[in-house]
């Protein structure tokens, strides 16, 4: 069964320490809200990475993490005291406030700049070509597990605008230029890209995965 998240962060946790075993690591995270009704084997997204709870106490949980996951996400950069975004996986009947997030990070991207614009924060990130092809203007994207709307995507520069609530209640407010952010693109974009991949090369060249294309084909 594939678990899903919504990209609505339930709380900011704190990274405590990392244990190293023979073939894997365990991360220990200080938390509170996401421990509500938690059981061993449950899934919690940490900075947008789906991890399995293997142990927990009144104010912490531990999760297995593979060395490859540490290399492929920003979990490998965590230091003691680092703030992380936390979200329990969806349960039957839960309200979906963001968009469907799988907890499988596509890539990491360095922060290019962070600017204030009235009451909003504008974050620009440098994404690679493999990630960019799945991102659509006004579509959805998850940054460190936070469900956000794409403000713009041009020549590998992803622009996101954050409202004060998203800025204050997530670890995106901890970011500085050069920091790596976990990115998970929208499942919709991946399905559309796969659909385009089944076309001929000429048809692919004539069709862009744009907002107009999505509308014409009934996706939005």
Give a quick rundown of the structure.
The chain is of the alpha+beta class and 220 residues long.
Helical percentage: 10-25%
In the CATH scheme, the class of the largest domain would be Mainly Beta
Strand order of the largest sheet: 1-2-5-4-3-6
Report the span from N to C terminus: 27 Å
Shape: globular
Explain what the structure shows.
- The chain has two domains: 11-88, Beta Barrel (Elongation Factor Tu (Ef-tu), domain 3), CATH 2.40.30.20; 107-216, Elongation Factor Tu (Ef-tu), domain 3.
- It has helices at residues 67-72, 129-132, 164-168, 187-197, 201-206, 211-216, and strands at 11-20, 25-30, 43-46, 49-56, 60-65, 83-88, 107-117, 120-126, 140-143, 146-154, 157-162, 180-185.
- The protein has 220 residues and is of the alpha+beta class.
- It starts with 10 loop residues before the first strand and ends with a helix.
- The strands form two sheets. It has a six-stranded antiparallel beta barrel.
- It is built from six helices and twelve strands.
């Amino acid at each position: 069964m594939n678990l899903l998240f919504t990209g609505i962060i339930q709380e900011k946790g704190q990274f405590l320490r990392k244990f190293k075993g023979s073939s894997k690591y365990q991360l220990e995270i200080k938390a509170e809200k996401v421990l509500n009704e938690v059981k061993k084997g449950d899934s919690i997204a940490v900075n947008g990475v789906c991890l399995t709870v293997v142990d927990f106490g009144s104010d912490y949980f531990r999760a297995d993490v593979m060395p490859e996951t540490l290399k492929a996400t920003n979990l490998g950069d965590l230091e003691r005291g680092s703030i992380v975004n936390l979200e329990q996986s969806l349960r039957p009947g839960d309200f979906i406030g963001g968009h469907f997030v799988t907890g499988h990070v596509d890539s990491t991207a360095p922060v290019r700049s962070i600017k204030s614009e009235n009451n909003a924060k504008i974050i620009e990130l440098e994404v690679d070509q493999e990630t960019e092809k799945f991102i659509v203007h006004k579509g959805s994207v998850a940054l460190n597990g936070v469900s956000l709307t794409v403000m713009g995507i041009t020549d590998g520069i992803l622009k996101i605008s954050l409202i004060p609530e998203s800025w204050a209640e997530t670890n995106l407010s901890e970011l500085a230029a050069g920091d790596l952010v976990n990115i998970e693109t929208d499942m919709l974009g991946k399905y559309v890209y796969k659909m385009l991949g089944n076309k001929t090369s000429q048809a692919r060249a004539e069709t862009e995965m744009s907002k107009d294309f999505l509308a014409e084909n009934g996706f939005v």
